[in-house]
Design a protein that fits this description.
Layout lengths: L2 E6 L4 H12 L3 E6 L2 H13 L5 E5 L8 H10 L3 E6 L7 H6 L3 H27 L3 E5 L12 H21 L5 E7 L19 H13 L4 E4 L3 H10 L2 H4 L5
Parallel strand pairs: 1-2, 1-4, 2-3, 4-5, 5-6, 6-7
Length: about 240
């Protein structure tokens, strides 16, 4: 049975790599995002790689009115339907401290917007009884750190949402995977200093597709972040609050 991925935030560097790899595997892609011209270029590449469906559609996490057209198109697609969420934004903590109005958009991009969309599409996936939902969070959501705790809080909320969605949808044959990448060489991190274990987006995308095919529940990528975050989570709060991590 053919599979089509709805890829939200399809203009992100990791999402582009994921779309190409999915196309190489013979999957279709419905690329959803704000920059139509950018996505059309990716769609052409995906079609050349063998994707049986390679389309673009407008999506804005901050505009729920944009969701209905995707839901309608999803209902018309035959075969297995899966969703991968790469949506996100990351203003610096300093910027949000100086301008708290940035917080609402950060939370919408990283948590509430994707959560609303997934809640709306969940009945469509459950009715088919198959498919996968991939939600890309961040290791920043594992513990509040001084340098990015608002962004981390949004990702933590998304992690918890995905955990509940996994509990719900797994009973209907739909698998939900939470992805926790570390630092990745993308536009989000350009210009930042002291980024440990910096990974290339192609590596992250390959790990995500492999994890989805293997029905992993939670994926740290690169894998080094699993022991690193395990240690960070275990540090007592009285010590952690004094650390610059």
């Amino acid at each position: 049975m053919s599979q089509t991925w709805i890829i939200l935030g399809a203009t992100s560097t990791i999402a582009r790599s994921f779309a190409r790899l999915a196309s190489d595997s013979g999957d279709g892609v419905l690329l959803a995002g704000r920059d139509i011209a950018d996505m059309q270029a990716t769609a052409s590449d995906c079609a050349a790689r063998g994707a049986p469906l390679a389309e673009v559609i407008a999506f804005d996490a901050r505009d729920a009115a944009s969701f209905s057209a995707i839901l309608k198109r999803a209902s018309d697609i035959d075969g297995t339907l899966s969703v991968a969420v790469f949506v996100g934004s990351m203003p610096t903590q300093d910027a949000m401290d100086a301008d708290p109005s940035l917080i609402a958009g950060t939370v919408t991009d990283n948590f509430t917007g994707p959560a609303i969309f997934l809640t709306m599409i969940a009945p469509i996936l459950e009715a088919r009884g198959n498919g996968t939902v991939v939600g890309v969070g961040s290791v920043a959501g594992d513990r509040g750190r001084i340098g990015n705790y608002i962004y981390g809080a949004a990702k933590a909320g998304f992690h918890t949402y995905l955990s509940g969605l996994r509990n719900r949808m797994g009973r209907k044959g739909v698998h939900v995977m939470t992805v926790k990448p570390g630092t990745v060489d993308t536009a989000m991190t350009w210009g930042m200093e002291k980024l440990p274990f910096l990974a290339q987006p192609e590596k992250i995308a390959a790990d995500i597709l492999r994890g989805a095919n293997g029905q992993k529940n939670i994926l740290y990528t690169p894998l080094i972040w699993w022991p690193v975050m395990t240690v960070i989570r275990l540090i007592p709060e009285r010590i952690f609050k004094k650390l610059q991590v």
